[in-house]
Amino acid sequence: MKAQTAKFGIGQVVRHRKYPFRGVIYDVDPIFANTEEWWQSIPEDVRPRKEQPFYHLYAENAETEYVAYVSEQNLLADESGEPVRHPQVDETFERTQDGKYRLRRKPMN
Fold first, then answer.
1. What is the pLDDT of residues 47-65, one digit of tens each?
2. Coil, helix or strand for 72?
3. pLDDT at res. 74
4. Does the model's pTM come out above 0.85?
5. If we measure between CA atoms, which residue out of 7, 68, 9 comes closest to residue 42?
6. In CA terms, which of 56, 63, 86, 102 is 20 to 30 Å from 26?
7. pLDDT value of position 57
8. Per-residue pLDDT, 98
9. What are the respective helix, strand and coil percentages of the chain, to the nearest 5?
10. Which residues neighbour 13 within 8 Å (Cβ) at sequence distance 6 or greater?
11. Torsion of CA 81, 86, 89, 95, to 10 degrees
């Protein structure tokens, strides 16, 4: 499998193309790096290609917050400007004045 350049970056807010959730990207895999069982559990008619970037998200929907693993083909940039309420976002990122998320700097010892 050939890796391709990721379209989205760490700290970017994205939303799912088909399902009603959004989140902040905290990690990127250049190609699929989850289990075969996980991939097979996705209904075949919506199962993504493996040869593309996959994103780890601090995700949320109307009811809850969770961690999601989503293919690039199923993501769109979220331009709402709304903050993401997932509790791990504040542990990992700081929100800039323009509403974007930047990784927190680790204190030097």
1. 999 999 999 999 999 999 9
2. helix
3. 95
4. yes
5. 68
6. 63
7. 98
8. 83
9. 15, 30, 50
10. 22, 23, 24, 77, 78, 80, 84, 100, 101
11. 30
The type of residue at 3 is A
Please name the residue that has the structure tokens 């069982």: 37
The token duo for 9 is 């970056």
Taking CA atoms, 21 is separated from 60, 86, 92, 104, in Å, by 6, 12, 20, 24
* Residue keyed to tokens 């991939």: 39
The beta-strand segments (E) located in the chain are 13-16, 22-29, 54-60, 65-71, 75-77, 93-95, 101-103
Place of tokens 């903050």: 83
Give per-residue burial for 43-54: e unless 16+ CB within 10 Å, then b. eeeeeeeeebbb
Identify whether the C-beta of residue 103 lies closer than 8 Å to the C-beta of residue 92: yes
How far apart are the C-alpha atoms of 63 and 21, rounded to whole Å?
Answer: 10
